[in-house]
Amino acid sequence: MMLEGKVAVVTGGTRGIGFEIVRKYLANGAKVVLFGSRQETVDKAISKLAEENAGWEVDGMCPKLTDAGEVEKAIAAVKEKFGRIDILVNNAGISQSTPLYNYTAEEFDKCIDLNVRALFYAILPVAKIMKEQGGGCILNTSSMVSISGQPAGVGYPTSKFAVNGMTISLARELAKDNIRVNAVAPGVTKTDMVASLPPEVVARISAQIPLGRPGEPEEVANAFLYLASDLASYVTGEILSVDGASRA
Ligand code: NAD
Asked: What pTM was computed for the model?
């Protein structure tokens, strides 16, 4: 198994891409703590996973990801319980598609707070733990819009360009501590995030995908599995596109 004995934290692990990452990691031998926004959805996700395989070691918490203090406490609790953290997946995120002239500063800030600031809040305490234990792997969730931009909802592509900058910079800074930092940049993927878009928007986007269809959450999770595994031991500072070539 590719992640035998590793301990992973996955934010936004209750549904969509995050839930598939959690499943894939558990199926490959990792112990996983998923972070969700509400206890109810965390409990539901854990029961679903336990139904699939009662032997999987999965736990859940719901710290407010945009509160540095809460995140630090949650990370400390994971270290206390499992003794180490080998993999951090920053997956939680919100998308926006509001045209500029209807945008508010609050909406913009909400996107930057969760999609950028919260990554920093989780990475800081985790990197300290990884340094002390001799290494680890940090994975961020970018998007194809971090390459192509997006014609509305400017906060979202702005946040994902920032994710790429944080990923590449921290890969260079943390390499000396044996911490690899990479990101996965999904294209249109079949999750609630996409279901919440108007159907005509989804149809228009899908028609432009060279592979002719949106991605499945599992296909994106496969990239997170590869990057977390020893198969990617010399890969760091990479933004791995999983988008059917739609970024071009
Ligand atoms: P989703 O809406 O299905 O899931 C988002 C996850 O983030 C959920 O678990 C949710 O609980 C969590 N989350 C949202 N707001 C939160 C908050 N304030 N605090 C804590 N957790 C919160 O979306 P998804 O499609 O699975 O997206 C996962 C990641 O993939 C996001 O970073 C998103 O930007 C990225 N992404 C998705 C697509 C796509 O087409 N689905 C494309 C590119 C990138």
From this structure: 0.97
